[in-house]
Amino acid sequence: MEVAHLTDGGAPLLGEPPSIELGNTTYAVRGRRKDGLQSVEHLAAWLRDMRPRLPVALADADILGVTDGDLRLARELRDAVRDLAAAAVDDREPDSDVVATLNRHAGQTPRWRELRTTPEPHTTVRAAGRPVAAALAALAEDAVDLFAGPLREQLSACHGPGCVLYFVRDTARREWCSAGCGNRARAARHYAKVRQRSEG
Hints:
Helix 4 (68-89) runs parallel beside helix 6 and helix 5 (96-106) crosses helix 6. Helices cover 49% and strands 13% of the residues. The strands form 3 sheets. The chain has a two-stranded antiparallel ribbon with strand order 1-2. A two-stranded antiparallel sheet has the order 3-4. The chain is of the alpha+beta class.
């Protein structure tokens, strides 16, 4: 099987920080929650789609070699990110067990940068162990930076009807994760006003 032939999976990608993209693999369709990491193939497809944004290079063989253990770790990390995002949005102290879970994931695989000189001088990230495990640990580090830094204050839950996604507000007026959620929210408000007028 080729990486290009993997089923669509994971969840919609919205251009959010990578750890929030992982958290958003729990999403909703027509108000019903969906798990974008139902299978090893879904995780492989999500890693394929996220590959350009991950600090650890994943070859096709790495993605096709995703295991049930990787899936378990990705789900655990995703759930920790979602719990931490909910705490940040609600302006409450995060659960210490969730913080410990995130920190455990962040410390899983040592990574380092190396200099490469051809074709031009550049750096590359190398890792000990399996590249998929290193990528998941890097996602955990991304979450550590996000929840400890200024983006934490800009994190928001989407106000779209039935939506369960998180996003980083790039403007103070942004209320939705995507234009689609904004359109659905405006349509719902419009229909509620029309219904209220017809009942009044």
